[in-house]
C-alpha cells in the first residue's frame, strides 16, 4: 500500500483539518476519533508518512506503541472502562481504512456492540512448528 499524503491523518498533521488533540510529540500524535465507538476512543498515529506498520522503523514502532500505552492509561483514568482494546490494522484486507499507520485506543464496555471474531483453526503442534519455521525474525 503506497502512502497517500492526501489522507485524513496527513491533513490533520498539516493543520488542514481540525482535531481534538490529546497528545503530540516528535514521532506521534493522539486525537479523538471523529467516529467515537465509545466515549474516549482515541487515534494514535505516527507523525511520519508511513502507510502501514510494515513501513515503520523499529524506533517509530516503539514510539507509536509507547504513546498508545500512555493514552490507554489516560483513557483508563478518565473513563474507567471495563476494558480497553488496542487495534492496529494494515491494508484493506486487514481492515485498514486510512492509509496512514495508526492505532485505535478503544474503551470497552459489556454489550457495547463492538465485535471482533475470527474462525479458530487448531492445526496441531507439528503444523505450528512448520508455520513457525517459515517466519524468520531478524
TrEMBL record:
PROSITE patterns with a match to the protein in the record: HIT_1, HIT_2
Entry's Gene Ontology molecular function annotations: hydrolase activity
Biological process annotations from GO: nucleotide metabolic process
Active site: 102 (tele-amp-histidine intermediate)
Domain HIT: 8-115
Keyword list, A-Z: Hydrolase
Motif Histidine triad motif boundaries: 100-104
PANTHER family associated with the record: ADENOSINE 5'-MONOPHOSPHORAMIDASE HNT1, HIT FAMILY PROTEIN 1
This protein's name: Hydrolase
Organism: Thalassobaculum fulvum
Amino acid at each position: 500500500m503506497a502512502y497517500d499524503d492526501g489522507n485524513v491523518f496527513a491533513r490533520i498533521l498539516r493543520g488542514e483539518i481540525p482535531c481534538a488533540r490529546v497528545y503530540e510529540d516528535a514521532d506521534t500524535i493522539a486525537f479523538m476519533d471523529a467516529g467515537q465507538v465509545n466515549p474516549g476512543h482515541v487515534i494514535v498515529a505516527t507523525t511520519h508518512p508511513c502507510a502501514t506498520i510494515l513501513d515503520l522503523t523499529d524506533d517509530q514502532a516503539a514510539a507509536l506503541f509507547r504513546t498508545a500505552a500512555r493514552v490507554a492509561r489516560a483513557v483508563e483514568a478518565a473513563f474507567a472502562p471495563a476494558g480497553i482494546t488496542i487495534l492496529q490494522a494494515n491494508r484493506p484486507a486487514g481492515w485498514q481504512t486510512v492509509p496512514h499507520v495508526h492505532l485505535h485506543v478503544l474503551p470497552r464496555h459489556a454489550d457495547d456492540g463492538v465485535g471482533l471474531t475470527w474462525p479458530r483453526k487448531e492445526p496441531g503442534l507439528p503444523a505450528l512448528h512448520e508455520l513457525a519455521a517459515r517466519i524468520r525474525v531478524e
